[in-house]
Write a structure and sequence with these properties.
about 290 residues; alpha/beta; six-stranded mixed beta sheet; four-stranded antiparallel beta sheet; 11 helices; 12 strands; about 35% helix; globular
Length: about 290
């Protein structure tokens, strides 16, 4: 059954289809005004979705993140958030909807303690002091950092620092959350922990998540993937479809998920199993294969 609502102002029924939270049209930007870092890029991102943007170094993916929040000013094209075009006039209205977690969490720390750091954004948003401690504790618990509220952020591990940065952004209740290479400086354990946290946030909230990443394993858990090369979008679609294009990904100097390599190896050794892009799907396929026997 299709979900429908009636629009009083337009006088017609609107179907309950997914809405675009972000729409980018023919976006072009150059740092030196000679070579375009991003050229004629167009894509849309559904509200509440988890989108990964991948590409080799210099592909333009981090430039896209900065353009989306107005840290860079486009040369051509348009960016829309909730159908409002990003301009100098709408910049702060749109920024109020967006939180961003950068590659190096040290660049985001302001407070002397974890608690102070989470509180910083709340103070800027003029949250009442009486309500602040409850919000701090809520999001510290969300990222499993309750025991570190009185610790100095600079003395934490890389993964813990990113958790604090994420808590500080979540506390401001963003509608869009951008991760700009937020796991690239972490060890494998820290990377896995932050990726699991991103997946948890996606499952439990209605936040639209955009992750700029090199991590092909993270891509396999997203809803939507945009692949960039040389400042252009070269692939755009569902991860299951994109990640099976092994030759194209290798040509772009990207990898394929371990789960896909594993299922291909199983087939090479005579085990009849279809391609899987996540380990969860591998386990499911192996169980089904066992039941069929």
């Amino acid at each position: 059954i299709m979900n429908c609502t009636f629009s009083l102002d337009k006088g017609h029924f609107i179907t309950g289809e997914a809405m675009d939270k972000i729409k980018v049209e023919n976006l072009t930007f150059s740092y030196d005004k000679e070579i375009n870092a991003v050229e004629n890029v167009s894509f849309s991102i559904e509200e509440g979705s988890y989108t990964t943007i991948i590409g080799h170094n210099g592909s333009g993916k981090s430039t896209i993140a900065k353009l989306l929040i107005g840290l860079l000013e486009k040369d051509q094209g348009s960016i829309y958030v909730d159908d409002v075009e990003l301009t100098m006039e709408s910049l702060y209205e749109i920024r109020d909807k967006v939180g961003i977690v950068f590659q190096n969490p040290d660049n985001q720390f302001i407070g002397a303690t974890v608690s102070d750091d989470i509180a910083f954004g709340l103070e800027n948003h003029q949250v009442e002091t009486s309500k602040m401690q409850g919000i701090i504790e809520k999001f510290a618990e969300k990222v499993k950092m309750t025991d570190y509220l009185l610790s100095e952020p600079t003395k934490l591990s890389g993964g813990q620092k990113q958790r604090v940065a994420i808590a500080g952004v979540l506390a401001m209740s963003p509608e869009i959350l951008i991760f700009d290479e937020s796991t690239s400086m972490l060890d494998p354990q820290g990377k896995a922990e932050i990726n699991a946290l991103i997946q948890e946030i996606h499952k439990e909230s209605k936040i639209t998540i955009i992750s700029i990443t090199h991590d092909i394993e993270e891509v396999s858990h997203s809803d939507h993937v945009i692949v960039m090369d040389g400042g252009h979008v070269v692939m755009d679609g569902k991860p299951d479809d994109i990640l099976r294009k092994e030759d194209d990904l290798i040509r772009l100097r990207l990898d394929i998920p371990f789960a896909l390599k594993f299922t291909k190896a199983l087939r090479t050794n005579g085990i009849d199993i279809k391609d899987c892009t996540t380990l969860e799907k591998v386990v499911e396929e192996v169980c089904q294969l066992h039941l069929r026997k």
